[in-house]
Amino acid sequence: MPGQKPIKVALLGCGTVGTEVVRLLTDHAADLTARVGAPVELAGIAVRRPNKHREVPAELLTTDAQALVESDVDVVVEVIGGIEPTRTLLLQALRSGKSVVTANKALLAEHSGELFEAADSTGADLYFEAAVAGAIPLIRPLRESLAGDRITRVMGIVNGTTNFILSGMDSTGASYGETLEEATRLGYAEADPTADVDGFDAASKAAILASLAFHTRVTAADVHREGIAQVSAADIAAAKGLGRTVKLLAICERVSGGGADRNDTANASEFISVRVHPAMIPRTHPLAGVNGAFNAVFVEADAAGEMMFYGKGAGGAPTASAVLGDLVAVARNRVVSGRGPRESAYAALPVRPMGQTPTRYHISLDVADRPGVLSQVAAVFAEHDVSIAAVRQEGRVDDASLVIVTHAATDAALRSTVDKIGGLPVVRDVVSVMRVEGEES
Amino acid sequence: MPGQKPIKVALLGCGTVGTEVVRLLTDHAADLTARVGAPVELAGIAVRRPNKHREVPAELLTTDAQALVESDVDVVVEVIGGIEPTRTLLLQALRSGKSVVTANKALLAEHSGELFEAADSTGADLYFEAAVAGAIPLIRPLRESLAGDRITRVMGIVNGTTNFILSGMDSTGASYGETLEEATRLGYAEADPTADVDGFDAASKAAILASLAFHTRVTAADVHREGIAQVSAADIAAAKGLGRTVKLLAICERVSGGGADRNDTANASEFISVRVHPAMIPRTHPLAGVNGAFNAVFVEADAAGEMMFYGKGAGGAPTASAVLGDLVAVARNRVVSGRGPRESAYAALPVRPMGQTPTRYHISLDVADRPGVLSQVAAVFAEHDVSIAAVRQEGRVDDASLVIVTHAATDAALRSTVDKIGGLPVVRDVVSVMRVEGEES
After folding, report:
1. Residues A157, A270: one domain?
2. Mutate to test the interface with B, among A32, A144, A310, A324 (most CBs of B within 10 A)
3. Cβ <8 Å between B329 and A304
4. Residues in domain ACT (chains A, B) (predicted)?
5. If I label A275, which of A384, B115, B254, B429 is the partner at 20 to 30 A Cα–Cα?
6. How far apart, in Å, are the Cα atoms of B153 and each of A43, A85, B301, B302?
7. How far separated are the first and last CA of chain B, in Å rounded?
8. Looking at the structure, do residues B299 and B328 belong to the same domain, yes or no?
9. Residues B120 and B154 in one domain
10. Same domain, A401 and A328
11. How far apart are CA B362 and CA B368, in angstroms?
């Protein structure tokens, strides 16, 4: 479109993703112009240490991110990460009418409300496909494709590092510590792996997915979060023994009807539950085959039924692809004076605390191999009102392995059951206690 | 949004999908209003026989589709199917500035250029998520999420009827005829199954996917099309013997560099190839596990890498979900005076004819079990410049089975090779010849 005023872009941050964004903007310039209807021009790149970025044009580099945001750019692309100064910069951009494309899951999971309000005050766009599951189109399907349906469940593997570690433990039988070490050595885990292994990254993503799926503001603080550091080789072995495997899942559910008795939710007829925790899933489940650094997300909706999205969940190029897709969308919106979807949080569903969210459990015990053991154990379950779905007992040389899978029970009921069982003289060891997902209850 | 002017919708057609559209519009009315920013109001439903539609409000029914399109509606939703009178009605709608949501793959695969031009003449929207793979968000990811990337390949199972039949043949060993009969009895195949089993439906979808993926107008006539009627129980058995299964695939590829010598494409450095045919794929391939009426599509892009989309590819509710998602999008665009993506066909890449598109082949022969047979057969391959990738020979009582998998070869070279091999005295029967996909060549 010769003659068409270019869309000017400010890039904040130039790490792995930023460098790829610059490369794609350069390599695909002609295509992007045709797709947007105007040239897309990189106006500046804000970095902390300009001399560390020899792979991008030096004349675009600046250390003054604020001045870049305040300049006459149309779009701000943010790949710095972290909460501050990013939050302040993006609020400033949106309040001055600049559209924002961001990959910042932590920021969105804390401050999306504030960011959307800033966008609304000027009619600017806020896009964030790259914030969840890298290149896999997931935000747009939830926010747009399924906007006429009623989403009931989103369940997926959204963190590559923990998936790499759990896949490794499953295939080698090694411990969590050994496998984490290997992942760090190979570059799949960061030097400080906390954000990944303790589930913070997955919890941010779960908050974003739940917000979109249920038209409700959900922040990271609303997400029940358990990491993988407690997953033992015994858990993995116990899962294998029953044709299951262990994955760190992010689960967002719409729950109808009662079951909650918190005062503030007493009158609600619908709740949501958002959680991140390791769980055993059947090896035949499509998520079981998602290995290494790949991500996959299941979505269930009333009319659409079950869908799955699969692909590379992280990395410079895949994340940059998602950023560029959003950049094309917001730039197109500028050209036609249109606007993308706004925040949709009208439903404002209450979040049900994990203590009231029943899930199924897999419990593996070492027990004495003699008559009456099963009935003693079963009596404890009955006493706590935890219903047993399946039992498998196998004799060994001088003891027996007893595996119990429950029907849905709350954490509290399960914990008291397990505590009491652990104290029975016939039970030698509670080998593994883990949630079970992906099966009919 | 009380006080906001409603978005008036005309529905053309009220079969399985239309009925579900009406149901969702009614059941989700409050949600749709909140998501769109204005009430979405069904203004009329055009049908041929009003007395046959007792499940929708009688006062909305009309037999005069043209008058409904000409009335003061904002959006026309089309679920009639077929080319005429649909084409004329939609052109009329778009030319008078009404946005169109359609599920009509055959119409889009023939006339999308004309429809987009009509939309462009007034700035109306043309959305068609429901035209390919039912509820699976696929159009929006290709058209928007990957708009900043370079898509190299789209390969998938996009027809549920043929997939149901091939899954059935694979699990029972029954013939094509028997399995088709069963599919018809169960309602998975229509009384006249031609559009499905001869690949017309999949070819329309392939044309739509290729158009979006490669920013090029591709019509059904550009698609090389082979159906499944020739797939024999012997083909299925031969596939099984080597850990493969047979699927009807739609494949859209970007091919760089030479290899074509048609005059009109002689100077092009890039081509596309679009085809629908049965092919053997490894049982370990993610598409191999897609059974029955499900659809799944692989997409590969330079930066994003490999992605897969999976879900229900047909049926009233899933298709209606896709229609409603589009309806929310075009209605939102009306509310904010914005506009969705326009046709993007600027790349205008030449389509390479199938005769020049090399693919790999699996050939299964019954041969005499005596020395020298393999060398005679191999010599014929060498003579036609078809390179052999793998061979497996197995002796039986008085003959032998010889399976050959080739490297990529053109149809023409393969056909002459097979013709000549069929004439060799040592070859008793050419049991099966079929393309192989989803493996490294």
Report:
1. yes
2. A144
3. no
4. 362-435
5. A384
6. 32, 40, 7, 10
7. 57
8. no
9. no
10. no
11. 19
- Exposure on the CB side of residue A330, measured as CA atoms within 13 A: 29
Q: Which residue has the tokens 């007034």?
A: B122
Residue A342 belongs to a domain = no
Are B309 and B136 within 8 A, CB to CB? yes
B342 belongs to a structural domain: no
> What is the b/e burial string over B182-193, where b = at least 16 CB atoms within 10 angstroms of the residue's CB?
bbbeeebbeeeb
DSSP H helical segments within A123-255, as ranges?
139-140, 160-172, 176-185, 194-197, 200-214, 233-241
B371 Cβ contact list (under 8 Å, min separation 6): none
Domains in chain A, number: 3
CATH number at residue A68: 3.40.50.720
Residue A296 lies in a domain: yes
Q: Are residues A221 and A110 in the same domain?
A: no
Tens-digit pLDDT string for chain B (441 aa): 456 899 999 999 999 999 999 999 999 999 999 999 999 999 999 999 998 888 899 999 999 999 999 999 999 999 999 999 999 999 999 999 999 999 999 999 999 999 999 999 999 999 999 999 988 999 999 999 999 999 999 999 999 999 999 999 999 999 999 999 999 999 899 999 999 999 999 999 999 999 999 999 999 999 999 999 999 999 999 999 889 999 999 999 998 865 444 444 445 689 999 999 999 999 988 899 898 889 999 999 999 999 999 999 888 999 999 999 999 999 999 998 888 889 999 999 999 988 888 999 999 999 998 888 899 999 999 999 999 999 988 877 778 889 999 999 998 899 999 999 999 999 999 999 999 998 865
CB A242, CB A390: distance < 8 Å: no
CATH of the domain at B269: 3.30.360.10
Rounded to whole angstroms, how far apart are CA atoms B103 and B58? 24
Mark yes or no for CB contact B318/A327 under 8 Å: no
Q: How far is B368 from chain A (nearest CA, A)?
A: 42
Q: Is A305's CB within 8 Å of B145's CB?
A: no
Strands B75-78 and B99-102, by their bridges, are parallel
Q: Does A237 lie in the same domain as A273?
A: yes
ipTM: 0.91
For the domain that residue A367 is a member of, what is the CATH number?
3.30.70.260
- Strand A244-256 to A99-102 pairing: unpaired
Same domain, B51 and B98: yes
CA distance A352 to A255: 9
Q: Are strands B294-301 and B151-157 parallel, antiparallel or unpaired?
A: antiparallel
**Do B88 and B56 share a structural domain?**
yes
Amino acid at B83: I
Kindly report the number of other CB atoms within 10 A of residue A83's CB atom: 12
Q: Nearest CA of chain A to the CA of B253: how many Å? A: 18
